[in-house]
Amino acid sequence: MASPATDGAVHQSRPTGVEALTCGSARAGAALACLAALAVGGCSSSPFDSTLLLVQVNDATALPAGASHTAGVTLASQTDGHCPLSAGAVLTVGDQSGGVLVGDQSWPFGNCFADGVPLAGNSDVALKIWNGTNSADEGQAVLGGLDPGFDATIVSPLSGAVAAGGDIHVSVPEALRNFQPLSATFVYLGTDDPSYSGEDSAPAFEGSGSSMTVPAPAHAGKFRFSVLMNSSDPSLAPGVVVSCFGFAKCAAVGTSDIGPFEITVLAPPP
Questions:
Q1: Which whole number is the average pLDDT over 117-139?
Q2: Most buried of 16, 35, 43, 245 (most Cβ within 10 A)?
């Protein structure tokens, strides 16, 4: 198990346990559980001692097909004086390369929260929070596996068009094969029928679970859809803390949703 580093190093192991929390089963409950797990630390000059860095992936229902999820980043504390940070505090998000943060996407972080932080699919994401006072007042974390469903694809129909009520076959990434498909939500993208916004269908695994069948709507037109996956085993929840430096704890609340995709449902012949 890896603890938050005190030597300035960025540890690349994937720890499990208390110091590096992985949360995410029931998303709202997981976030609350992570906050509740934050222990009060001792006295220190660092503004990040006794703090929890929580990264939670946002719902993707309204995302365009093939788009990466975004996440909210929160710094929480059970002691006074940590939040808000200084007016010059900055959150920087990028890739981790050779132990160095690479990327220039930054957000003001004086209020200890930033939303809409883009993820690069299911790749590891590196975050650094600087309090804007001196180089010692910073914390860093690397998180991975936040969006395994991003790697799913439509296996068939490859044309992107399916008969009304027909079957759509979708690949299931390995990280989600111990989950269960709950429902597929189809959002209607057409404007010709204001009374119709879309519908849900019941997906099912095929064979070994490396793919699933998703019934298409009976309504013709263009749709965006995603599949909600679920597991009763919290240890399977997406989100891994690769490293956590400077904070008391780091937590990742990923998403097990698959998609979104776009599909065209063809009207039956007259």
A1: 80
A2: 245
- Other beta carbons less than 10 A from residue 173's beta carbon: 18
* This prediction's pTM: 0.74
Domain 151-230+260-266 falls in which CATH fold? Immunoglobulin-like (2.60.40)
Residue that is written with structure tokens 């189809």 in the block: 186
221-230 β-sheet, strand order: 161-163, 258-266, 221-230, 180-188, 198-201
Q: What confidence tens digit (pLDDT) does each residue in 8-49 have?
A: 333 333 333 334 444 433 444 455 455 444 443 333 456 677
What type of residue is 107? W
| Exposure string for 242-267, b = 16+ CB within 10 A, e = fewer | bbbbbbbbbbbbbbbbbbbbbbebee
Peptide bond into 234 cis (omega under 30): no
Between CA 22 and CA 143 the distance in angstroms is: 10
Amino acid (one-letter) located at 8? G
Nearest residue to 40 (alpha-carbon basis) of 85, 6, 80, 5: 80
Q: Is the backbone peptide bond immediately before 84 cis, with ω within 30 degrees of 0? A: yes
